Amino acid sequence: MCSSDLIDATFTATGGSFDYKTIAGYTGVGVSGKTTGEIDIGESIVGVFTGAVYVPYISLAFLFDGPEFGEVQEKASISVVLKSGETVAYTLTALFQADYEWTGASKIVENMSLPTRTKAGVWEIEDPFDGMEVTQITFTALRGECGRGVCDNQSDFAFESLGIQQLAEIPEPGTMALLLSGVAMLGAVARRRMASTGR
Predict the structure, then answer these.
(1) 120 near 24, Cβ under 8 Å?
(2) Largest Cα–Cα distance of the chain, in whole Å?
(3) With helix as H, strand as E and coil as C, how does the chain read?
(4) Which of 74, 77, 152, 179 has its CA 20 to 30 Å from the CA of residue 194?
(5) Euclidean distance between CA atoms 79 and 13, whole angstroms
(6) Nearest Cα to 164, choosing from 51, 54, 45, 47?
(7) pTM
(8) What's phi and psi for 5, nearest 5 deg?
């Protein structure tokens, strides 16, 4: 196991040390074990945040739909621990001709680079956890659907980028109205004092 400190988080690799790979201008982070620079079955990258964070997007790389590299409908697993303490898991599967299957609530999954031999198979998921804040995230690979193809190395992918945002506590509407009325009352009292003292 090895770790690396990032803003608001500590990431740990299991199954090897952190390793990097660049394809078609996209660089992803993986594990040095089975497939250099990618997260393979039995390997993982885990991020633990110092507080609950909102994740506006996640980008995964080198997730192919086959028959590229003998990898057919590769499947990435993303599991998170929510602020409530509940653990939920979602999967992103690369399908034929840049189609996909995402099991989370997000309706926006964009293909940034085609899953072909000359491109990088990069996918960006916007608001992957439907606005819920998380305290931990885990990336690992699941076995894809081989079908009639030859599956030499199922599945592997890399973690390309991740947005992290800490949300400020926002008062409820009733609390905000009470706070504003209190500020207004203090202003009125101050004006009366100034008027009575002639200042």
Answers:
(1) yes
(2) 91
(3) CEEEEECCEEEEEECCCEEEEEECCEEEEEECCCCCCEEECCCEEEEEEEEEEECCEEEEECCCCCCHHHCCCCEEEEEEEECCCCEEEEEEEEEHHHEEEECCCCCCEEEEECCCCCCCCEEEEECCCCCCCEEEEEEEEECCCCCCCCCCCCCEEEEEEECCECCCCCCCHHHHHHHHHHHHHHHHHHHHHHHHHCC
(4) 179
(5) 15
(6) 54
(7) 0.76
(8) -85, 130
pLDDT tens-digit map of 164-184: 887 765 445 554 454 445 445
Residues 6+ apart with CB under 8 A from 99: 65
Quick check: 87 and 79 in contact, CB under 8 A? Answer: yes
* Tens digit of each residue's pLDDT (9 = 90 or more) over 25-76: 999 999 998 888 999 989 999 999 988 999 999 999 998 887 666 667 788 9
CA distance 86 to 80: 8
Burial of 36 (0-12, 13-18, 19+ CB in 10 A): middle
Q: Which residue is it, tokens 């003292």?
A: 197
